[in-house]
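Hi team,

Below is the intake form for Ribosome-releasing factor 2, mitochondrial from Lachancea nothofagi CBS 11611. Please confirm the fields before the structure is written into the shared record.

FORM ID: S-0412
PROTEIN: Ribosome-releasing factor 2, mitochondrial
ORGANISM: Lachancea nothofagi CBS 11611
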Amino acid sequence: MNLKVSASKAFGADTLSTMFKMRMLRLEIGRRSFSSKTDVSALRNIGIIAHIDAGKTTTTERMLYFSGKTKRIGNVDEGDTITDFLPQERSRGITIQSAAISFSWQNKFRINLIDTPGHADFTFEVIRSLKVLDGCVTILDAVAGVEAQTEKVWKQAKGIPKICFINKMDRAGAGFSRTTKELIAKLNTRVLLLNVPVFANTSGPGEPVFEGVLDVVNKKVLRWTPQDPERVSVEDIICNSYYWNDLVKLRECLVETLSEFDEELVEYFLDTANGDYMIVPPELINKSVKKSLLANYAVPVLCGASFRNIGVQPLLDAVVNYLPSPLEAKLPEFNTNVPVEVNKKEGSVINNNKNLCVAQAFKVITDPIRGIMVYVRVYSGCLNSGFTVYNSTTGAKFKIGKLVIMHANVAEEVKQLKCGEIGVLTGSTVSENVRTGDTIITHSMKKDGLKSLNRVKELGLKINPIETPPPVFSVAVEPRTLGNKKLMEESIATIIREDPSLHVNVDEETGQTLLSGMGQLHLEIAKDRLLNELKAEVEVGKVMVSFKETLNACTKQSVLQTEDGYRFSISVEPLDVAMAAKSSDEDWHYLSTDNNYLILEKSPACAGNWPYQISYEQIVNAVISSSIVALQKSGKIANFPLHSCAVRIKNDWSIPLDATSVSQTLALSRGLIFEALRELPDTAFAVLEPIMHINVTVKQSDMGHVLQDLTGARKANILSIDDEHDLTSGENADIQYQRLAEDQFLPMDATLGLANISSGATVNKTIRALVPLKEIVSYMSKLRSLTKGRGSYTMNYHGMEKVTSDRLPSILEEF
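The structure came back. Fields below:
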């Protein structure tokens, strides 16, 4: 039968047997505004994560269209997508910053979706988005399989329930079964195949054509009509039909995998279904799938071709059916033990206080009209517009302006944000008092204000620390004239506020400003924003590798005691030494970059009533700021910033009881750190360089030339040479999951043939190696030359290592 499927409906068993409402309902739903009346259990906070070019933004656009959020489908190639709205994103055809958008599905659920970048240079956008998400959709390219960045984002999303969507099934060389095997073996996960691809013209001449999916749970075949993306043909699979044998084996595999985890399903299968896999009801399977997903036991897998509008509606059904609501999601990380209850009406209740609101700021943007806007996720209570809030990270108290929900770059005002919701803070005071990663605390009753927050446990709550990855490239930025200097500093401050993975260092002696980032493209985008968006009159220098220095020995204690009551004893240690002696009497604070930490030994004043006018958080933040500045240019070999060091402040520290400013604390602690480091000899320092993990994919015939170049000119350490789709390769490859991959029943890949499923035979080889970043800058042009344009590579940051003595002179000569 042919059904005109409304995009606002699901493809579940109960809806497939009826005619869906007319298309106008889809448009009506798209026009409805969100009013915060959505039940917490109907919320889904999800992210789209994947390797670059897997189809994240294309899939997001189809989700928005089929949900009724938009009236037309945007395409990346045409530069008219909703979530890629920055000029740089539309001109380059890539996602640069994460974008949030809300829409409804099945006229019941509300999905808050964050589309994240796939390029490794923008990995911080993924890191901070994952901190506030309850579930993820991981998109895989059916042609490329599990790629390097896929492995990286999968690892970053550890512990977050995931659904996998194998995209681009319409492309030549697409392999659903091959990709699923890689998913099991390389990402160490069990899979639950909820649907598998259906092809037309599988036995006649010509290439098979991907046209739909076989729904394993509901025993249906769904076919899409290319001319009308909303028209779906639904066919029941009857006994002895073309798809029956595959369906029986797929259902058997699905029920068997779930039975290893779900006793309820086992009882039904043995007692009621009498061992018949085909009569286990979809409702029970769906319940079991969700149970196993929430326990991170297995991952549901679906497939489609987003560009051709195939398979997106079943994916949306899977999102609302299986991914957790805020009531079911994993609780955030707290810096202290605090009781948390989950209430179906209020959501999470922290510290037994229903009026306590706790939220996290995870992203800052600058809007040309509204100014600074801060994205927040509310974890408990209600955040109301116009209320006074407390930043437990900085100790600042301020009033927020209007609250809005973002639909990409379009804002919708709301009166409050409830538990589980994602929204945006606005107001002039927000820009001064909130940064990425800060925890916001308030009371949801205006008449009580902050009076109920006199409990130290609540005032000191911090959640989900967001660590910034280290920058590996730098550029010098200079104003064209002295008159342009102020605008340059303001513009740099703007882009760093929005993107903390960019760092700025100012050499106090030379006045030179260095802007550091995650990669060449990262800095290219920053340069483009400075010149074209913020209109800064600056000159941007050549991209350079960011070298660091580290300590081989501890400094002596540098002690200062003033007549007015300041006392500090400070030393600097190699991080590994500090970690070996770590104790519970210390507060450790990450210094934002370069793997440096502040260790604050607890003063006796911390144990009793706090005697000072200045809060503990303000003192900590002052010492953090001074430590960051002091470590920036303290290397003695080449004045590189220090890396992997710990600044220790002994427990005898004190400040004047009547001090109301932290300026003295800043100046004195910074001076003591400089003094401690100056006393060390040059031999106590070592130069570090960034090492990259690269995956080079080449034809076997080109491998010899590429290997010779890597090991010779590039100083590479070759880790392995594998077939491109080898199940034993990858960072997480495990023999247990390799066996699971081989045992998993999978239909034959119609586009590849049976041989490729089992053997993974391919003419391409993947070389995995560790290479000093300095030796691989602009490597693509050399690789193209060696492989006649056929080679490709991906690169990810591996870590910092000491520069060998034979390479150190040439590095120092450059600086």
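SUMMARY LINE: Residues 549 and 810 are 16 Å apart (CA to CA).

Thanks, M.
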